[in-house]
Design brief:
This protein is α/β, with parallel strands linked by helices and 620 residues long. 62% of the residues lie in helices and 9% in strands. The chain has helices spanning 2-18, 20-53, 61-68, 70-102, 109-117, 120-153, 158-164, 167-193, 197-203, 208-219, 223-255, 263-302, 325-349, 373-381, 408-411, 422-425, 446-453, 472-482, 496-505, 539-547, 560-569, 579-591, 594-605, 612-618; strands at 57-59, 357-361, 386-393, 399-401, 406-407, 413-416, 458-463, 489-493, 511-515, 518-520, 529-533, 551-555, 573-576. α2 (20-53) packs across α12, α3 (61-68) crosses α4 and α4 crosses α6 (120-153).
């Protein structure tokens, strides 16, 4: 078996080495085609799905419920099929290029793309069948894992299990882990059996439906060989990735400090490093795609699959791309220009905003127990702009400040918020879990928090829903107006329809949507601000929504580098457990010049923070 594996690998290396330029061009072409053709198609499909869901935007829980519906499952299959189709199209073109080299044919890009495009419908049919087969395998296991989680981890609020990790949590996690491991083993076995489907479809004249059966018949009894080949391929790509990214990290650490006091050169150096990172990633993905296609062709030939494409082109051109002095000079000039432009782009990406809103998440939850008067007071002491709290209704119609659906995480008390009266709830110690000195802390009523914050800090009230709310929106509105704090509050929620209820009750109030995932254009929502996960806060997202008149807040930002990164991107505010730290970072950032800001911004991008004192001491 070793001899066969080494022979296959040697053949692939030989072909790639002789035809790397064509492989690079094919990869670049399909990246471009993906943006030009498939991105609008996916966007159009997304808009179609949203129109059927009768909503402008789907966010978080709405996405989950939508995907669990029959229409949502159909949408999942179509999205999966289209994404897989993009990958398969590139693999098809790579395979054709590989075969063209081994058969000494003309590697004409137009002919290769035409050969692939002629099989577009067949490839898409195969993609749909593949997604359906994968879902048939995956869904029972996911359902079994979901059933275990539902039976074992739903008696109390999920945050209790995540924070305290009782024995039932580990038992459920272990059982779910076993289920997922079995699912992975079944998937791997099936994928090995189906490994020759694409060559059979492209070159063997096999129908998409029949290809799964024929591939399994060919591979059966030889799964170990294919497994060794693919494991070796994956290990090689992984090692190459570590080497490339390790080199970038090494250069970042040792070269950037040499140019702290030379702005123009620093821009070029940073631009060069970013370009090197992008180029390295491009080369790795090219090699991964090209070598994978080559291995599948070699395996197909090993098992007797016909892979000829005679007639695709004429005689292979003998001319090769030669390096000359003039070409090297032009490449050098182009590289310097690209590096400088990337540096300018990075500077442009750094927004000059120094006055942003600090929102204390559940009060200063890093210094005091969350959603308590102690955390509210600590946030005010830390000079926060806004205090964010969570509110729910009690059984006696009061509005209480608490995040979870019960008190298991905070106090080990099995009482649902909607089953307790305010008096019962305020008998529970919700501070000792944080530290003994907070044993006197209780879940405050909304009115108590508003009275404490009035004139000191604005308050963001997040409406929490667990399916037992009655008049939460109206009761919050009444309490705010009773306290005369309409100008000092904002309302937000994970549920857009609930935000709209508040909008109907009080159109002039400031409202926002909280979200971690979204499908659709959030800039069209009828809200004043968006509170999103850091992963969603790209420069394009921030600028698009700000241009639409919406402020963008990010959560939960608790470390200095993340705070600096978000501030550099130009967000309107950060939601944090550490408002004092955020205020400190703002002060430090205001003292930095553009070079220092660029250094930190780039360090975060490259994944290697720079010592702040070092660059500050050496800056001009």
């Amino acid at each position: 078996m070793k001899d066969i594996v080494f022979s296959l690998g040697k053949n692939v290396r030989t072909v790639l080495r002789a035809n790397m330029l064509s492989i690079l061009i094919i990869h670049l072409v399909f990246i471009t085609l993906g943006f030009i053709l498939f991105t609008p198609l996916l966007g159009g499909l997304g808009r179609l799905l949203l129109s059927f869901s009768s909503q402008e935007v789907l966010a978080d829980t709405d996405i989950i419920f939508f995907l669990l519906s029959p229409f949502g499952m159909t949408a999942l299959v179509l999205f999966g099929a289209m994404l897989i189709t993009i990958l398969i199209f590139e693999q098809a073109a790579m395979m054709i290029t590989y075969i063209a080299v081994t058969e000494d044919l003309n590697e004409d890009l137009i002919q290769i793309l035409g050969y692939t495009a002629a099989r577009a419908l067949v490839i898409f049919k195969f993609s749909v069948l593949l997604v359906l087969r994968l879902l048939i395998i995956i869904l029972p296991f996911l359902a079994a894992g979901g059933l275990v989680a539902w039976l074992a981890l739903t008696k109390y609020d999920i945050n209790y299990y995540l924070a305290h990790k009782p024995p039932i949590f580990f038992a459920a996690a272990a059982l779910i882990g076993v289920i997922l491991l079995i699912m992975a083993l079944v998937l791997i076995r099936k994928l090995l059996l189906w490994s020759l489907t694409l060559p059979l479809i492209l070159f063997g004249g096999t129908s998409p439906k029949q290809s799964f059966k024929e591939s399994a018949a060919l591979v059966s009894g030889n799964k170990k060989l294919i497994a060794f080949v693919l494991i070796g391929w994956g290990a090689s790509i992984f090692i190459l990735s570590i080497m490339v990214f390790g080199l970038v990290q090494l250069l970042t650490t040792n070269i950037i400090p040499l140019f702290y006091d030379k702005m123009t050169l620093l821009l070029m150096v940073i631009g060069f490093l970013v370009a090197l990172l992008v180029l390295g990633n491009f080369l790795i993905t090219t090699l991964a795609s090209g070598s994978f296609a080559g291995l599948l062709i070699e395996l197909s030939r090993h098992f007797g699959v016909e892979t000829s494409i005679k007639g695709l082109g004429g005689t292979k051109k003998s001319s090769q791309l030669r390096l000359t002095r003039s070409r090297l000079v032009l490449a050098g000039i182009g590289g310097v220009l690209i590096s400088f432009l990337i540096g300018i782009w990075l500077i442009d990406d750094i927004q000059p905003i120094d006055d942003l809103t600090i929102v204390a998440h559940r009060g200063a939850a890093g210094r005091a127990p969350e959603n308590t008067m102690a955390s509210i007071q600590a946030a005010i002491e830390d000079n926060t702009d806004w205090v964010e709290i969570d509110v729910q209704e009690t059984v006696d119609g009061q509005v209480v400040v608490v995040h979870d659906s019960d008190f298991m995480k905070l106090a080990g008390v099995d009482l649902k918020v909607w089953d307790g009266t305010l008096e019962q709830i305020q008998a529970i110690d919700v501070g000792s879990w944080f530290a003994p000195e907070f044993a006197d802390q209780r879940a405050p009523a909304l009115i108590d928090v508003l009275q404490e914050a009035k004139g000191k800090a604005h308050v963001v009230i997040e409406l929490k829903y667990y399916g037992h709310d009655q008049q939460l929106e109206q009761r919050v509105v009444d309490i705010v107006e009773q306290q005369g704090m309409v100008e000092e509050i904002a309302i937000m929620s994970l549920k857009y329809d609930s935000v709209q209820k508040v909008r109907k009750l009080r159109p002039e109030w400031e409202t926002g949507l909280l979200s971690a995932q979204v499908l659709g254009n959030m800039s069209k929502l009828d809200v004043d601000f968006l509170a999103v996960n850091m992963a969603m806060a790209s420069p394009a997202f921030i600028r698009t929504n700000q241009a639409a008149g919406k402020r963008v807040f990010v959560w939960t930002v608790n470390d200095k580098m993340s705070m600096f990164r978000m501030m550099s991107l130009g967000v309107d505010g950060i939601i944090t457990d550490e408002p004092a730290l955020a205020r400190q970072v703002m002060a430090e950032r205001s003292e930095l010049n553009s070079v220092e800001r660029l250094l930190i911004h780039t360090a975060v991008m490259l994944g290697k923070p720079l010592p702040q004192k070092k660059y500050r001491d050496q800056s001009p």
